[in-house]
């Protein structure tokens, strides 16, 4: 959606030459066919209980929720001229050859339901329904041939011929202009002419609107208005108007307005008339756009194509619940922020370029830009000259940095030096210095101090002229601001040298002593410091917040003893975190306006010396640059220079806390399955079993249950708040899935994937530019588990598992039985084998026993031999000479024989070397 601000002029004209007041143009957002994707021609408008807007369009009915448009077709896809909301909230429509109401399906889709079948057959031939109105006696559909009334589930046809003028409802009674009977009222199924109003309807188009509880305001195409007092006809007991009652002669009175000479059929046809709250009215015209006027008939504003409206042919006006104005035209739909106390002047008013200063002098507003100095031109409203105009002064200076009234003269600090402004003329003071700022001192009345690009000049008024006195010594810096304290000393704000305190020390205004103040005195730096003196306190705005100091007496002998510290009262709101401040201006009532890097704020005194800081009246406006001067008008209103010149009335009455609803507008699941189409509904009193009352709350029967295959969902949401489109922020949370709320953002879309089975609630909050939170929107849904985790699947799994277990046990049992048979046969075979083995083993044992007996005898023999061997190995008697051995029987035997007999050893004979040498010495040497 694209929104643009239209620069509209204020039109307040007297029949004589008059001054346009200080009001500027309201903000306008235009919507064209490119946005809403339907025909350009629009007619009526209505708002439902959620705050959603509906417009009668040549292609059907347009629905708008603040972010998205959708077209609701009607039978025949024809144009819809009339819309109305019934007592229960049901929306009715009237189109070409059809009438009906809006209904919503369980999935949230709105559709038009025709009531044509309920019309008596004899009355079924009609063309356009020009207007639909809801009254105490039912819903009335007005056509040129008859009037249809829907009440109690039935439609009746009344013998009335609507003149296609504007009808209105007053005290629950419908008044309209009948083509044949004049001004009439409708009493149930009766058309009641009002004879006391004969002549008010002159056969041409008229508009009717409530003026007070029992008064009508009638506007006629002939360009004159009538005020009708119906108090004498009102019966308080029956709560009806009784036309048989006598009426006073002054029942109908002329209501002169500044429009009377302008609203001629050939110039600007009056088409619709609506009250704008209790104090103003708006007229929609053919050829002249919208004109607003107050209860005295004075024009307040003209809103037309020259000022940014889409088209001068306006066919419908609707005041919404926020007291803002919707205009339907042949080129689209416009939203006009009537209730917002902000207005603006720009290029369409003749102000070219970036404005940097403004000032009101002798009832005229002056605006200084980088190119020129402009002045507001007095004029009277005409159809060809419908905007307040500013014109550049002849020989206008450039770069007008400051305007100030001094000694009754309007003086300007400009790039060309000091200028004196006389009405629409410029009188240049012949000193070609680049002037940045202006100031005065009570010590030197009739003098003007001019801050320069590199110095400070002093001028004196003499004989109606401003004459240069001289330049102040000791000041060489660029002086951006001059502030006087209670003693008449001047505090000079420089570009990059901190503050300069100038003390007058002699008999001339140029005789000064200067002290430089900076971080040593507690200031947060040397750049972008602007001093302001209020009461006995010196304040300094800075990039690090607000600082203050009690000014110490001048000390000529030493350094300045003034010390600055952060302000803990006014500056508390700007200290955590530190906020960049660019200007501080008194509101004239004990409060202060601050220009900050985030925009304008207003500090209002409350109790115990404390201040309440608010910014709501300034929300939506861009912050000012450090060199753009805030101006508080003596008659009220704060003027803010910039790309356009803004005027804000912070004292104006506006309900910034007015509630609005947050709406879930679409829910889409996987494979683009449309789960919800934007509207919840319940049954009203007009239609049984029909969801005709639209609401944001979801009914218990509207909670969808989605299969697990659709566990990815996207949500679209909006808020029924229409001021400054694009500034509303959203925050969302999916209960059961998200751990915490999302960050605030302007996106109105959220997508989730892989949502587990379970019950969920999607919640959305919205916060408008004033910080007001709307009523939370919610959407509940349930995701079924996947088929394999459903109850029936679990039962199936259990059943299948049990069957499988039984089958497994049975098969296992069969297997065991087979294995048992095999095992038994194997046991028999093994038993037989074992018996055979046992028999063989017994034989072997017997044989072994026999062998053992043989072995035992052998062992005994061996043991005997061993004994003998042991005897041999024991003590053996041997002859010491012949070496014979004595045996057991006492016989002496040779050694060889003894050993042979007692062992298995045999001897062989030889001779050892020693014996050989001894026996055979001759042979062995």
Give a summary of the structure in a few sentences.
The protein is mainly β and 925 residues long.
Could you give the topology of this structure?
Elements: E1 28-31, H1 33-36, E2 42-47, E3 53-57, E4 60-64, E5 69-72, E6 80-85, E7 91-95, E8 98-104, E9 110-114, E10 129-135, E11 138-143, E12 147-151, E13 154-158, E14 168-170, E15 173-178, E16 182-187, E17 190-193, E18 206-212, E19 215-220, E20 225-229, E21 234-235, E22 240-241, E23 252-254, E24 269-276, E25 280-286, E26 290-294, E27 299-303, E28 314-319, E29 325-329, E30 332-336, E31 342-345, E32 355-361, E33 364-369, E34 373-377, E35 389-392, E36 400-406, E37 409-414, E38 417-422, E39 425-428, E40 435-439, E41 447-452, E42 455-462, E43 465-471, E44 479-484, E45 490-494, E46 499-504, E47 512-517, E48 530-534, E49 537-542, E50 545-550, E51 565-566, E52 581-586, E53 592-596, E54 599-605, E55 611-614, E56 631-632, E57 638-640, E58 645-648, E59 662-669, E60 673-676, E61 680-683, E62 691-695, E63 705-706, E64 713-719, E65 729-735, E66 749-752, E67 758-767, E68 777-783, H2 791-872, E69 885-886, E70 892-893, H3 895-902, H4 913-919
Parallel strand pairs: 63-68
Antiparallel strand pairs: 1-30, 2-3, 3-4, 4-5, 6-7, 7-8, 8-9, 10-11, 11-12, 12-13, 14-15, 15-16, 16-17, 18-19, 19-20, 20-23, 21-22, 24-25, 25-26, 26-27, 28-29, 29-30, 31-58, 32-33, 33-34, 34-35, 36-37, 37-38, 38-39, 40-41, 41-42, 42-43, 44-45, 45-46, 46-47, 48-49, 49-50, 50-51, 52-53, 53-54, ...
């Amino acid at each position: 959606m694209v929104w643009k601000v239209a620069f509209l002029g204020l039109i307040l004209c007297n029949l004589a030459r008059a001054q346009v007041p200080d009001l500027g143009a309201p903000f306008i957002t235009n919507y064209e066919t490119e946005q809403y994707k339907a025909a350009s021609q629009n007619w009526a408008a209505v708002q439902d209980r959620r705050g959603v807007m509906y417009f009668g369009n040549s292609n059907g009915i347009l629905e708008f929720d603040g972010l998205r448009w959708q077209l609701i077709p009607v039978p025949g896809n024809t144009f819809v001229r009339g819309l109305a909301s019934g007592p229960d909230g049901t929306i009715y429509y009237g189109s070409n050859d059809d009438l009906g109401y809006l209904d919503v399906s369980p999935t949230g889709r709105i559709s038009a339901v025709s009531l044509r079948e309920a019309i008596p057959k004899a009355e079924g031939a009609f063309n356009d329904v020009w207007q639909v109105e809801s009254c105490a006696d039912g819903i009335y559909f007005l056509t040129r041939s008859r009037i249809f009334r829907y009440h109690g589930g039935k439609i009746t046809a009344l013998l009335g011929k609507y003149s296609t003028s504007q009808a209105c409802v007053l005290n629950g009674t419908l008044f309209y202009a009948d083509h044949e009977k004049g001004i009439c009222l409708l009493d149930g199924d009766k058309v009641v002419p009002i004879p006391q109003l004969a002549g008010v309807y002159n056969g041409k188009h008229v508009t009717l609107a409530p003026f007070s509880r029992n008064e009508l305001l009638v506007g006629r195409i002939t360009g004159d208005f009538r005020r009708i007092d119906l108090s004498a006809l009102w019966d308080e007991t029956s709560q009806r108007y009784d036309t048989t009652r006598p009426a006073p002669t002054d029942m109908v009175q002329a209501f002169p307005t500044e429009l009377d000479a302008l609203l001629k059929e050939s110039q600007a046809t009056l088409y619709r008339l609506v009250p704008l709250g209790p104090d103003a009215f708006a007229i929609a015209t053919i050829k002249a756009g919208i004109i607003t006027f107050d209860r005295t008939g004075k024009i307040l504003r003209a809103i037309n194509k020259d000022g940014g409206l889409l088209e001068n042919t306006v066919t419908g006006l609707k005041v919404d619940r926020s007291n803002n104005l919707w205009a339907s035209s042949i080129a689209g739909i416009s939203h006009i922020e009537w209730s917002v106390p902000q207005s603006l002047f720009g290029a369409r008013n003749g102000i070219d370029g970036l404005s940097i200063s403004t000032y009101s002098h002798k009832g005229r507003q002056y605006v200084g830009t980088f190119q020129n100095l402009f002045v507001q031109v007095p004029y009277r409203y005409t159809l060809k000259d419908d905007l307040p105009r500013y014109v550049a002064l002849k020989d206008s200076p450039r770069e007008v940095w400051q305007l100030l009234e001094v000694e009754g003269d309007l003086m300007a600090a400009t790039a060309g030096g000091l200028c004196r402004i006389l009405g629409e003329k410029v009188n240049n003071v012949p000193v070609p210095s680049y002037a940045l700022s202006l100031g005065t001192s009570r010590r030197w009345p009739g003098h003007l101090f001019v801050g320069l690009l590199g110095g400070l000049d002093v001028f004196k008024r003499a004989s109606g002229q401003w004459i240069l006195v001289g330049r102040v010594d000791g000041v060489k810096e660029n002086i951006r601001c001059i502030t006087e304290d209670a003693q008449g000393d001047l505090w000079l704000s420089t570009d990059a040298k901190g503050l300069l305190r100038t003390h007058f020390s002699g008999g001339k205004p140029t005789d000064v002593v200067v002290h430089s103040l900076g971080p040593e005195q507690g200031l947060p730096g040397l750049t972008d410091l602007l001093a302001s003196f209020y009461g006995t306190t010196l304040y300094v705005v800075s990039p690090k917040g607000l600082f203050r100091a009690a000014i110490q007496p001048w000390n000529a002998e030493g350094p300045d003893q003034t010390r600055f510290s952060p302000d803990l009262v006014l500056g508390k709101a700007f200290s955590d975190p530190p906020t960049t401040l660019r200007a501080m201006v008194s509101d004239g009532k004990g409060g202060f306006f601050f220009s900050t890097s985030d925009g304008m704020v207003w500090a209002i005194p409350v109790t115990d010396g404390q201040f309440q800081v608010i910014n709501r009246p300034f929300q939506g406006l861009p912050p000012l640059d450090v060199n753009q001067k805030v101006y508080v008008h003596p008659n009220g209103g704060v003027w803010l220079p910039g790309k356009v010149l803004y005027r804000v009335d912070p004292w104006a009455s506006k309900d910034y806390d007015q509630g609005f609803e947050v709406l879930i507008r679409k829910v889409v699941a996987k494979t683009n399955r449309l789960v919800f189409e934007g509207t919840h509904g319940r049954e009203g009193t007009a239609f049984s079993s029909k969801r005709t009352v639209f609401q944001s709350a979801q009914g218990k029967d509207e909670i969808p249950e989605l299969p697990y295959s659709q566990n990815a969902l996207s949500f679209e949401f909006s808020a029924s708040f229409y001021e400054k489109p694009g500034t509303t922020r959203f925050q969302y949370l999916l209960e059961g899935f998200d751990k915490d709320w999302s960050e605030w953002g302007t996106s109105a879309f959220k997508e989730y994937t892989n949502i587990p089975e379970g019950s969920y609630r999607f919640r959305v909050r919205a916060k408008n530019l004033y910080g007001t939170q709307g009523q939370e929107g919610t959407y509940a849904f349930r995701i079924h588990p996947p088929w394999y985790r459903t109850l029936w699947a679990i039962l199936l799994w259990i059943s299948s598992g049990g069957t499988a277990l039984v089958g497994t046990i049975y098969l296992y049992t069969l297997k065991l039985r087979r294995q048992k048979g095999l095992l038994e046969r194997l046991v028999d075979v093994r038993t037989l084998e074992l018996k055979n083995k046992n028999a063989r083993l017994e034989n072997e044992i017997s044989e072994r026993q026999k062998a053992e007996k043989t072995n035992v005898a052998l062992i005994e023999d061996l043991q005997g031999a061993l004994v003998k061997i042991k005897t041999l190995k024991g003590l053996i008697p041997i002859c010491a000479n012949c070496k014979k051995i004595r045996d057991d029987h006492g016989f002496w035997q040779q050694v060889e024989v003894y050993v042979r007999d007692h062992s298995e050893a045999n001897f062989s004979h030889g001779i050892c070397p020693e014996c050989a040498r001894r026996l055979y010495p001759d042979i062995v040497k």
